[in-house]
Design goal:
The chain is α/β, with parallel strands linked by helices. It folds into 2 domains: 1-15 and 23-33, no CATH class; 38-344, Rossmann fold, CATH 3.40.50. The protein contains 11 helices and 12 strands. The protein has helices at 7-14, 25-36, 70-74, 86-99, 137-153, 209-217, 254-266, 276-285, 310-334, 337-342, 351-363, and strands spanning 57-58, 63-64, 79-83, 122-125, 128-132, 160-169, 177-184, 191-196, 199-204, 227-234, 269-273, 289-299. The strands form 3 sheets. It has a 5-stranded mixed barrel with strand order 6-11-10-7-12, surrounded by 4 helices. A hairpin with a 4-residue loop joins strand 1 and strand 2. Helix 4 crosses helix 9 and helix 5 (137-153) runs parallel beside helix 8. The chain is globular and about 65 Å long. It binds 1,4-anhydro-D-erythro-pent-1-enitol and uracil. The site of uracil has 9 residues, from strand 6 and strand 11.
Length: 365
């Protein structure tokens, strides 16, 4: 039985200057749930200012709670999938649409909901929101604040966040799928360092271990690549910060670089990317179940340059998407929701005749 948290406990823990250590993970989870969820599972914010504001403009998403009916637009969101580029998230949105059998009304197409922000892209496919997050922790941080507020305004219940990305493998071949166990910062700490009002604050970069194991269990023996779980190093730079010799600057030797990568490997680090600590720290702080699934696009023990052919890269980048889609399908099926999505009659009755009709029409341009 999870421990019960009272208002009195809340006050003790809420005061930044009197953080009381939790007895164990279970107590911390119960406390986090208390401060981040209403009793019906909808998202509660750890910021009392928001509900006092006349309106909340989610500036980088080109959305607002007074300009848009966010509950109507996003209230059914169950999964928020994020990846670096708008193109990858557009691909994922179309892919997941097919995978969950979600059908757009005739003549409609997916629209980038955040197009007017010119910052991030966002596509909605039924219960799945697909959002680009850009590169590096500052970009993800801004997006996470607004996405968590979006979940709150939309009254989403227990949303799950998953980052789908690329990374460099350490002793791991290109094409391998890596599920992050722990996200580590440049000093191998399992936390993200914030500077708030000039002070250094650390928040644990914890991901959901059960979700990581569940994702791993969905890898198939028939997949022509490995799917592994391991520690992920998150850096603030792609070049010197990841020990590359090929940046505009490099003031260390190849031997020093290799010794560093070896040290990482001994520490259990299997991959390097640039967003996992902030993603883990902010989802954990918001009590949101989250996972990071990346594909290695090179093995850093063999070099620094990313030079796999375009088609190979494209196929590799689909691999985390395939794993995540298996998970989403599984959850929807368990909740009896997949059937209702698949229940719609598809608009194409015969692909062969469909192609024929399209070609005929084009011929009469
Ligand atoms: C992986 O790839 C990007 C750098 O090329 C960065 O966003 C990351 O984490
Ligand atoms: N992304 C990174 O951050 N590093 C790599 O080596 C590859 C992708």
């Amino acid at each position: 039985m999870a421990p019960t948290i009272t208002d009195k406990d809340f006050k003790v823990h809420h005061d930044r200057n009197q953080v009381t250590p939790f007895k164990d993970d279970e107590e911390e989870d119960a406390y986090t749930r208390y401060v981040t969820r209403y009793s019906d599972g909808t998202v509660k914010l750890r910021n009392p200012n928001i509900e006092l504001m006349d309106q909340d403009i989610l500036y980088h998403l080109a959305l607002g709670n007074e300009s848009h009916d966010l509950k109507e637009m996003f209230g059914d969101i169950k999964f928020v999938c994020m990846g670096g580029t708008p193109k990858r998230m557009d691909n994922f949105a179309h892919f997941i649409m097919n995978e969950i059998g979600y059908k757009l009304p005739a003549g409609m197409q997916l629209q980038d909901i955040s197009a007017y922000s010119y910052r991030y892209s966002m596509y909605k496919v039924g219960p799945v929101l697909c959002v680009s997050h850009g590169m590096g922790t500052p970009s993800v941080s801004i997006l996470m604040h607004e996405m968590i507020k979006l979940m709150y305004h939309a009254k989403c219940r227990d949303p799950i966040f998953i980052r789908i990305g690329t990374c460099g493998g350490i002793g791991i071949e290109g094409g391998t799928v890596i599920i992050t166990d722990d996200a580590l910062d440049g000093q191998l700490r399992n936390s993200h360092e914030f500077t708030i009002l000039g002070e250094t604050v650390h928040r644990p970069a914890k991901l959901d271990k059960k979700l990581a194991r569940e994702l791993k269990s969905l890898a198939s023996a028939d997949d022509p690549y490995d799917t592994i779980i391991g520690k992920t190093l998150c850096t603030n730079d792609f070049y010197e910060g990841q020990g590359r010799l090929d940046g505009a600057f490099c003031e260390f030797s190849e031997n020093e670089k290799m010794a560093y990568l070896e040290k990482l490997r001994e520490h259990g680090v299997v991959n390097i990317e640039m967003e996992s600590t902030i993603f883990a720290a902010l989802t954990h702080h918001a009590g949101i179940k989250a996972a990071v699934v990346c594909v290695a696009i090179l093995n850093r023990l063999n070099g620094d340059q990313v030079n796999a052919p375009k088609e190979v890269m494209h196929e590799w980048q689909q691999r985390p998407q395939i794993l995540v889609s298996r998970y989403i399908r599984k959850v929807l099926a368990q909740n009896g929701q997949l059937k209702s999505l698949l229940g719609h009659q598809g608009s194409i009755k015969s692909p062969r005749r469909f192609t024929f009709v399209q070609q005929e029409s084009q011929a009469h341009d």
